[in-house]
Design brief:
The complex is a heterotrimer of chains A (357), B (404) and C (415).
Chain A (H helix, E strand, L loop, with lengths): L1 H19 L16 H8 L2 E5 L2 E2 L3 E3 L5 E2 L1 H14 L5 E5 L5 H6 L5 E2 L7 H6 L1 E3 L4 E3 L1 E6 L14 E5 L3 H12 L5 E5 L2 H10 L4 E5 H9 L7 E3 L7 E3 L2 E3 L3 H19 L15 H6 L9 H4 L5 H9 L2 H8 L36
Helix pairs in contact in A: 3-9, 3-12
Chain B lengths: L1 H8 L1 E2 L2 E2 L4 H33 L30 H34 L4 H15 L3 H12 L9 E3 L3 E4 L2 E4 L1 E4 L3 H32 L5 H24 L4 E4 L2 E3 L4 E3 L2 E4 H28 L2 H9 L4 H31 L11 H8 L5 H34 L1
Antiparallel strand pairs in B: 1-2, 3-4, 4-5, 5-10, 6-7, 8-9
Helix pairs in contact in B: 3-4, 3-8, 3-10, 3-11, 4-8, 5-8, 6-7, 8-10, 9-10, 10-12, 11-12
Chain C lengths: L2 H6 L11 H9 L4 H28 L4 H5 L1 H5 L15 H21 L3 H15 L12 H8 L1 H14 L5 H20 L17 H27 L4 H16 L2 H10 L1 H4 L8 H27 L2 H9 L4 H16 L1 H14 L11 H11 L7 H30 L5
Chain lengths: 357, 404, 415
């Protein structure tokens, strides 16, 4: 009996250890934070990336349960840069209200989850890399209501998603203009959209990109109007945890590579592997003597080739995920700021990163 | 000699210490105390280190700042310039009201189902059984989401179902006429307080007359007298206050569509989130309560029912006067734990947009330290559960007094 | 209820027919006027609801979301490139399911039929029937269908093993259960360096599989933990009692979703950085503690219901306290509260759906997330939630059915 119980206990303990332990024996450094995040990620072999699972175009699940979207491809680009494999990402679905605590706990290496860069978040959540998408909060209403300006929403009910800056902006807007607007707060996108479509609220408010993508999937998109005018500034971009500047710089450089590749006209099909004659292109792709600081960041000389081959440049990522939703890029703030060689720059857009040199 | 000396030192009441039950028990307690204290200390050190190292915000100073975020619906008056502390109170009051109304409805509905369960009518008892077996075995979250999607099938506010232009039902909620203070709040409050006093007087009258009837046999219709006392006092003060202030203290306010969106204003407007939460929590909890009620009724000996029927009591009377008073003692303890469950399940309201305590707390994590916020709401829920336990204990205490 | 009236009447009518369908209906459906009205009203309600549902289900409902999501509902992201690039790891959950059905077959042999047989056959048949789902071959390959269909031979193979080898004893069953649990985890997580078994983060456990894993882990851990807490609460040692009461009342008084939120926000801080404690594990710990507090109260109820003479007699025979508890009091106490314990298992299984609050893609949330991200399916959420509710219902009803059978086998209430 005793031997049997002992056996059972040992086996149960083994089962528990197996359930609890991380896959590859997470490198638990002796003294807490001695290891750089780059080394941690490389030793682990995967990049842990906090993402959204229910925002079409930015982060969503497809039929088979694959994570797809504009934000997802940014995670993949970082994984391609530091691990050489865009698929070596462990996606961590995150609910809006859980983003801050998740970043503060330092459990994820990166968060690309349509997160607005604000000073408070910068101070408490983590560091924001270059803005990859400019957004602004707008309102969508059924065309049948005949509303043409957000100020006309006085007396209505507005649906808003929980744990987002949109909630706070909406309150500013209501107080500022002394409107009588009722607010219903949902913690998930699906019930919110259903409530809006059924007319439980007269208007839905979120980032304009979100509204456009939502509207594109409605049975009759023409029956819904996105009102002109934005009530807020929403620069979205990747966030890294505080406390590791090298890692912050790596993520910023990856975004810069995506942007400059597009500016130089390099996409996933024409990634140069030999010197091209263009000094800027050769430098970016590590094909000459000059470099832009890859070594200091702990990246390989030809990291840009890996990234662009794996996920394409900024324009390709945008076209793959956001253009099909009807998010026009030409002539908006999300066009490039730079055109290289810089003959007629700026191009009118605001997508920008510090030069890679 | 030395060995003998040591052996005597290590004995207590003539028994070696390592075999003495008192010593073993104390050692066990001290050991576990040390282990628990050590674990708590370890956790605490780790947490405070982590908070320092990673600049994690903490503390409770945010409570005095203005919240500046909308709260969808509120029983208490709320303005976005109110503080976090007050916003907690507003959200908690939403949860409390939802819980109390939900519990009352769930107990009434669950009791009906429980009685139907043991009905001699085969169709009714099978229907009740099917109800119980279905709703007990489905997660309450799925039920809440499903009720929400069903609610959305109602017409939008501009095309509300209307009953005589007084009651409006639409997928955003239900509006009914409701007494509201016509002018100032003071006369209304004064009248409400006096009417409550009147109701208390009515209860006392009822109790006094019942007791007198039991002792002296003097028939005095205690129920009628009690109600008449309560209504009379309320009416007298209504007239007095109306004369003093020049207007009726309360008027019935009828809801009506207003504005370009035909939103219903006035009266009592119960919004969709609250309705969905109420319906789903009541349906779900009633399934459990039905089983508790059934078990309680069946715990009363069959002889009781038969004897009561033999004395000529009607079957409803048998339940009301004979079976229920005995069954209640078996029913109440598990019933209290269902009340607690309903209160806790109301925390799922965020899924469908009702501003309960948890929903508001999650919103707050945007602008205030998450750890502090969740500590506060955990304490609030613990308080509510203590309140339910207290009600249960008071009942048990009274039941014991009556029993002896 | 109608008989007293008959007794008070002077002239008694001839006795009514009590046999045959008509007699049965008169006794059970139309015993009195009120009873007749109730019967007609309930029949009306049932027929109306059923008719409305059938009309909706066959005309306006669009069930295409179910085959579109298909296996994703059951095994989460295990059929996606995100999780296992360049190879199909759909077979890994299937293989662990085969292990489970084989185990059930051995259990059938050990029990010699009866309930164990029903359970084993029902689960094997249910799994095999999934192979017949009308999903296109691209969605569900031939290999997957074969693996699912293999559940039926597996249960018989298990039975043969149980009958012919010494594995069919209770001790071996317990050991096998743990071994199979370990093997399933190894299959699902993968092993570094073994071809075909690339490691998969536990983050990707999803769909019904996640609910089942959390439930099985929670059930098997919360029962022993609940017993310890219950014994501690009844202990005469004041300190131990205070601690157990504190734990029980705390976990019973707080909603699970706030605990789950804390498990992701505060719990990681309570351990040193780099401590190997994954999100799924933290969620499982919280769910287990929550459930064991309830379990403790159920078992305490059973212990209180026991006559103190049982423990006193055992002590008088010279059994030490712990032996008297293990061999005398606990078995009887647990037997008395089997329904309550199974009820707790059921609510634990239902509560696993709350992990949505921390972004885990369980059965409910994976459906929700899919609809949120693919809004062309917005209109189909009712269909989806009906199916999800049905899946939960089948499992929970199965559990309560088994509990009732066990209860009657143990003779609860008859001794």
């Amino acid at each position: 009996m005793v031997r049997f119980l002992a056996l059972v206990l040992v086996l149960a303990a083994a089962a528990m250890v197996l359930t609890a332990c991380t896959d590859n024996g997470d490198p638990a450094p002796e003294n807490g934070d001695m290891m750089s995040r780059l080394a941690t990620v490389q030793e682990r072999g995967t990049l842990v990336c906090a993402i959204n699972t229910s925002l079409p175009g930015f982060g969503a699940l497809d039929d088979d349960g694959n994570n797809v979207g504009f934000d997802i491809d940014q995670c993949r680009a970082v994984a391609a840069a530091v691990l050489g494999d865009p698929d070596a990402v462990e996606y961590r679905p995150t609910v809006a209200g859980e983003r801050g605590p998740t970043m503060q706990a330092g459990e994820v290496d990166l968060m690309v989850r349509n997160t607005t860069w604000t000073s408070v978040r910068d101070a408490t959540w983590g560091n924001f890399a270059w803005t990859t998408f400019y957004d602004g909060q707008g309102f969508m209403v059924p065309a049948s209501l005949g509303v043409s300006d957000p100020l006309e929403l006085d007396g209505s009910t507005v649906c808003v998603l929980q744990g987002t800056t949109t909630e706070l902006n909406l309150e500013d807007f209501i107080t500022q203009h002394n409107l009588n607007i009722r607010v219903t707060t949902f913690d998930d996108q699906a019930p919110l959209s259903e409530a809006y479509l059924a007319g439980q609220c007269q208007a839905e408010t979120t980032d304009r990109s979100g509204l456009t993508s939502v509207r594109a999937t409605f049975d009759n998109p023409a029956a819904h109007v996105i009102l002109p005018g934005t009530i807020s500034e929403e620069p979205l971009g990747p966030v890294v945890p505080h406390g590791d500047e090298q890692w912050y710089d790596i993520v910023k450089s990856v975004v810069a590579i995506l942007i400059y590749s597009e500016a130089y006209g390099i996409d996933s099909r024409n990634v140069p592997t030999a010197q091209t004659g263009s000094r800027a292109v050769d430098r970016l792709f590590g094909l000459g003597d000059s470099n832009w600081g890859q070594e200091d960041l702990g990246l390989s000389q030809t990291v840009a080739q890996d990234i662009i081959r794996a996920v394409g440049n900024y324009g390709e990522i945008y076209d793959r995920h956001l253009t099909p939703l009807g998010l026009q890029r030409e002539g908006t703030r999300n066009a490039l700021w730079i055109a290289a060689p810089c003959e007629d720059c700026p191009k009118g857009g605001e997508i920008y990163a510090a030069p890679l040199r | 000699m030395a060995g003998h000396h040591t052996a005597r030192l290590l004995t207590y009441q003539g028994i070696p210490v390592w075999r003495h039950i008192v010593v073993i028990q104390w050692a066990l307690q001290v050991l576990s105390a040390v282990a628990v204290a050590g674990l708590v200390f370890w956790f605490f050190t780790n947490i405070s280190n982590a908070i320092d190292d990673r600049d994690i915000p903490y503390g409770f100073s945010f409570l005095e700042r203005a919240y500046q975020t909308p709260i969808g619906e509120h029983v208490l008056p709320y303005d976005s310039s109110d503080t976090y502390a007050y916003a907690f109170l507003v959200a908690a009051s939403n949860t409390v009201v939802l819980a109390i109304v939900g519990v009352i409805l769930a107990i009434s509905f669950g009791t009906l189902i429980g009685i139907a369960r043991i009905s001699s009518n085969w169709a009714l008892s099978r229907l009740a059984l099917a109800y119980v077996e279905f709703f007990r075995n489905v997660p309450v979250l799925v039920l809440i989401l499903f009720t929400f999607y069903i609610m959305l099938l109602l017409p939008p506010v501009a095309e509300s179902y209307s009953v005589g232009g007084r009651v409006y039902l639409h997928n955003g909620g239900l509006a009914v006429p409701w007494p509201t203070p016509a002018g100032q709040a003071l006369p209304a409050l004064a009248w409400l307080a006096l009417a409550a006093a009147g109701a208390a007087a009515g209860v006392l009258t009822h109790r006094f007359l019942t007791r007198r009837e039991a002792v002296t046999g003097h028939v005095s219709y205690p129920l009628t007298a009690g109600i008449a006392t309560a209504l009379g006092i309320a009416l007298i003060f209504w007239i007095v206050i109306a004369l003093l202030s020049g207007a009726a203290p309360l008027t019935i306010e009828t809801p009506a569509p207003t504005g370009r969106f035909s939103t219903i204003e006035g009266g009592l407007h119960v919004r969709a989130g609250a309705i969905v939460m109420l319906i789903s929590l009541v349906i779900y909890t009633a399934a459990f309560i039905a089983e508790i009620v059934r078990a309680g009724i069946q715990s009363v000996g069959k002889g009781q029912t038969e004897a009561a029927l033999a004395t000529g009591l009607h079957s409803v009377g048998v339940l009301r006067y004979i079976v229920f008073p005995q069954a209640v003692r078996v029913i109440v303890p598990p019933l209290i734990s269902q009340c607690l469950n309903l209160t806790k399940n109301s925390s799922l309201a965020a899924a469908i947009g009702f501003a309960d305590l948890t929903n508001v707390a999650i919103t707050m994590t945007q602008t205030a330290p998450a750890i502090s916020i969740f500590l506060i709401i955990m304490a609030a829920y613990l308080l509510m559960s203590l309140a339910w336990s207290a009600i249960g204990n008071i009942y048990n205490w009274r039941a014991r007094i009556v029993g002896t | 209820m109608a008989t007293p009236e008959a007794l008070t009447t002077a002239e008694m009518p001839p006795p009514r027919m009590t046999t045959g369908p008509a007699g049965w209906a008169r006794d059970n459906l139309f015993a009195s006027y009120s009873s007749g009205v109730i019967t007609i009203v309930s029949a009306g309600v049932v027929l109306y609801v059923a008719w409305q549902f059938i009309v909706w289900a066959f005309t306006s409902a669009d069930w295409s979301i179910i085959p579109t999501l298909g296996g994703t509902l059951i095994i989460g992201q295990y059929n996606s490139v995100t999780v296992c690039d360049s190879q199909n790891c759909f077979w890994r959950p299937q293989a662990s399911l085969l292990l489970v059905t084989t185990f059930l077959g051995i259990g059938w042999a050990a029990a010699g039929g009866g309930l164990a047989r029903t359970v084993a056959l029902a689960i094997a048949l249910g799994s095999a029937l999934m192979a017949l789902l009308p999903l296109p071959l691209s969605e569900m390959g031939v290999d997957v269908r074969l693996l699912l269909a293999a559940n039926i031979p597996a249960v018989f193979l298990g039975r043969a093993i149980g009958l012919r080898t010494p594995l069919g004893s209770l001790r071996w069953l317990i050991i096998l259960a743990i071994l199979i649990y370990i093997a399933s985890i190894l299959l699902l997580r993968g092993i570094e360096g073994v071809p075909g078994l690339q490691p998969i983060a536990s983050r990707y456990w999803g769909g019904l599989m996640l609910n089942l894993f959390l439930a099985v882990g929670g059930i098997s851990m919360s029962l022993p933990l609940g017993i310890l807490l219950a014994l501690g609460r009844r202990s005469r040692l004041p300190f131990i009692k205070v601690i157990c009461v504190g734990i029980i009342e705390f976990f019973r008084g707080v909603p699970l979703i706030t605990l789950l939120f804390m498990s992701q926000v505060l719990l990681p801080l309570a351990f040193p950085q780099g401590f190997p404690l994954e999100e799924v594990t933290r969620a499982a710990i919280v769910i287990t503690l929550f459930s064991s507090a309830y379990m403790a109260e159920n078992i305490r109820g059973g212990l209180q219901g026991l006559h103190p003479g049982q423990a006193e007699a055992a002590r008088a025979l010279g059994l030490p306290v712990w032996r008297a508890t293990i061999h005398i009091t606990l078995p009887q106490a647990i037997r008395n509260v089997v329904p309550a314990i199974v009820g707790q298992f059921i609510s634990l299984f239902k509560d696993t759906s709350l992990v949505y609050i921390i972004g885990m893609l369980d059965l409910v949330e994976i459906g929700n997330a899919f609809i949120g991200g693919n809004r062309e399916f917005l209109d189909n959420s009712r269909e989806l939630f009906i199916v999800i509710a049905l899946i939960f219902w089948i499992f929970n009803y199965g559990m309560s059915y088994v509990s009732r059978r066990v209860e009657s086998n143990l003779g609860v209430g008859r001794r």
